[in-house]
Amino acid sequence: MPLKKKNNRIENRLRIILSAAILLLIILSIVSYRSLNSFKVKSAWVAHTSEVLFNVQRLLVELKDAENNHRAYLVSEDETFRRPYINSKIGVMEYYNESQELTRDNSKQQKRFKQLLTLIDKWYALVEDIHIAKEDSILNKAMIKTSLKREIDVMENIQSIISLIEETEENLLKKRNNDVDIALEENYLIISIFAALTLIIILLAYLHFIRDIQLRSALEDQLQESIHRLSQTNQELEQFAYVASHDLQEPLRKVISFSDIILRKHAEQLDEKGRTYFDRMINSTERMQTLIQDLLNFSRSTRNIGDRKSIKINNLINEVLEDLSESIHEAKGKVKLKLTTETTINGTPVQLRQLVQNIISNGIKYRKKDTNPVLKIKTKIIPAVKLEQKIPLLVSEEFIEITINDNGIGFDEQYLDKIFTIFQRLHGRSEYSGTGIGLAISKRVVENHNGYITAKSEVGKGSTFFIYLPVETKA
């Protein structure tokens, strides 16, 4: 399996595990949050019921205290017992109002509280009548006995209703305490599940991390092996290039040389047809020489041959134009330059010279009939961020853009990728000479220098090639 696919599988598996872990944690967090809220609500209801019970019990205590003070006053006629009795109603009503407010959600309890209020008012009214009769000195034993009996009956009814209220609240408290216990157990269970799953996720992540390291180590070993094999292949290619440049070309040179001797010294022995055959043979042999030389150049372009050094791009362009001056003059061509301030790049001089020469040569070669070639060459600096989608590795913050425009025959842009492929030609050999390797070499040279090359064109309206190369970083 290719290394890239293996790396993608590892990354995809890691994304799936992390996504599942995050999703699981989110779900558990939501469940835990809801469970805690439920626990809080149920705990609040327990506190609410407990408060009702407390207030009702305090209400009964206040009533009992009032009853004791009332009877002590009747026996002793001491006003110190009457004052607490009088003040007791404030406390009784305070506890009553709080209890009645707390049970607004319970209609049965509300009915009982209404009955309770009626009985409390009745009890205080009975007691007050006894106190008034005593003050008016019209109270006798028979009246006291009758009043006390009525008073006791009312108090018993009060206690009975309070008991019903307390019983209801105690049942509610028991149920709500049970709900709280269940909610607490649920919280413990959720926390336990949460902790267990967290540990499992951590363990799985750890195991996956270890496996990932092992896989990456294996991939690195495979990569090193591939690099080693590639190095061996490059050495074999270099050996082939040497053979192509020397051993294969030597026989061709002899064919051309002997053919030329025959044509010069024995031309009179050949008829017109024979001389034509010899001319065609020499032309074919020369094309073979050119093809072998171009293959050699392409082989060299796949590697960074030679030492890299600082190169002033303006000087390089001018030197190439000087080398091609004869070809430009013969084609009656013109070159218009618009170069930016001197810019330095780091690269291999031989390869970069060949790159620029190939593009300019094409501009001269692929000219329209009866039209003198005009080339416009300009350079400018652009920020690297503009090339993020084009170049995988941005080795500099700035790039130089070299634009080479011609007024030649142009090409259909649907063949843009094709023109940078080795042996791909858009025109027949009878129309324009060449082997279809020049632009493939140019692309390899640009890639060797961490750059990018592309083109725009329209049939009959010329072509524009764009070359991007990283500007040398100042130390």
UniProtKB/TrEMBL annotation:
Domain of life where this protein originates: Bacteria
All copies of domain Histidine kinase, residue ranges: 243-473
UniProt xrefs under Gene3D superfamilies: 1.10.287.130, Histidine kinase-like ATPase, C-terminal domain
UniProt GO MF annotations: phosphorelay sensor kinase activity
Enzyme nomenclature, EC number: 2.7.13.3
Catalytic activity: ATP + protein L-histidine = ADP + protein N-phospho-L-histidine
PROSITE patterns on file: HIS_KIN
Keyword Transmembrane: yes
Matches recorded under InterPro entries: CHASE3, HATPase_C_sf, HATPase_dom, His_kinase_dom, HisK_dim/P_dom, HisK_dim/P_sf, Sensor_kinase/Photoreceptor, Sig_transdc_His_kin-like_C
Group of enzyme by EC: transferase
Keyword terms: Kinase, Membrane, Phosphoprotein, Transferase, Transmembrane, Transmembrane helix
Name recorded for this polypeptide: histidine kinase
Biological source species: Acidiluteibacter ferrifornacis
